[in-house]
Amino acid sequence: MSVVLFLFLVAALGAANSQYQPVCTPSNSSEASGPKLPDLPTAFSTFVQATFAAKNYTAIFFESYDQKADKGLLYRVRDGIKHTDIYDYTLEEVIHIDGNNCTVSSTNHTEPGHFNFFGRGAHIESVAKLFKCHHWRSCISGNQFSFHVDYYFTVPGWRTPRSMLNSTVVRAVVNGTFPAHSYRNGTQVQTNGTTKFFNVYDFIDFHPGSRDPSIYQIPEGVYCEGYKGSNKTVPKMPPLFALDFEFTGNHYNVVISGQETYDVGKKLVAVMHPNYWKPKTGAILTIEDFNTGIGYNITNFLGSSTCSLYNITQRSMGTAEDENHHIRMKTTQELFGGSPGKNGSSMLVYKGSASVRGINADIWMGKRVFKRNNKSHEVIMEWYFAKPNWRIESIGFSGIQYQVPLKVVFFTERGQNTMSVFNFNPVVFATEPRVFDIKPCFTLEEQRLVRFSLNGKNFHLLYSTNLSSMMVFSNVLGSCKEEKWV
């Protein structure tokens, strides 16, 4: 990869002559004398001040390259908008980001570690920016262009702020011509004459060594259509879990905390959350029963319980729509990965790595598209899961190897929202039976007491009130049919 990725972004129109004349003809590189053209480090970063004399324009670029990661980066700011190109040579992708707009195109892998100037010419000693330098000149020519490239490296022994290299790149100068052209009806048409260009690239703070890998990742809140990403699938979620969450709504300036229990097998979901409408009345326990299609909002304030019922709809918690447009409960995989394909929504694609609360995490990104009030809305989601080598150590169990969800960030037209996940518990006994208790929704007259008998001699089990025993009874009762009740 060339150190100057933008070196051949030729400045537009200069002075036109009556006939195209190349400025030089390449010579045999074997005739060159002097020191060998230095190789670049296998990883580096640098700022470059690029001056396009024919356009009276100067720009500042930042470039980074890492051969081991097989990635490169180039960005600049123009008219207040940051333009970024991320090169992934493993996937043969170039990611173009202008503000929040992102496109992906393909690229071919070029040989890293040297200047892509197609050979070098004569070597002389010179001075650039008052640095004593080695100076090489090369001629590059094709059917539609020709130009000299002059490039300068500090002589060995010249100290720079980062003097780890014997010779540091200082400047590159491109001086050449290409056939003049004009535009007709939006199409480029070649005309008589020659366009001249003269570009100067000054390298500032050339830094050998690897940068933080995150600079080669797509920025937060940007979704790139067509991005392939590495071949990493979203971690498989258990059909039953309990967790604590904290939701931060930036556009509301609010922090909401709560607990959730999700049981696909029993088709039940319970969420304990604050009462948004009457904060002084305490928390609400919302239970949705997908067996009946009924949801329950239960409050318990100062010893008095209230309950309201509602029909589960498309906008309810954890709902999905089947092929017959019937509402069903989402699987945990859908819950943590979205519903791909619907209304233009996407699959989650692996994005990279980050640290969340000191935990090394993998990131997957996706896009959800939905309609509300006949208006289409788009949400970009970024899911963070602990890397596979992190273990769960929690009350009641220990040492389970699991990719725990840590947080999800939502980017909408109104701003950014974050849901952080704590105490994720994927063990069967995580489901406390009383979590789904809807007794407050029925009067004493409506309630029914159930008596049943079990044959056995395990008195500890029969008379125990611990959580595991209650789970055994819960599963037994759940498997009983109506004719077995006594």
UniProtKB/TrEMBL annotation:
Residues 1-18 form the signal peptide. The keyword Chloroplast does not apply. Transmembrane segments: none annotated. Residues 219-442 form the LolA-like domain. It comes from the Eukaryota. Keywords: Signal. InterPro entries: LolA-like_dom_2nd. This is LolA-like domain-containing protein. It comes from Acropora cervicornis.
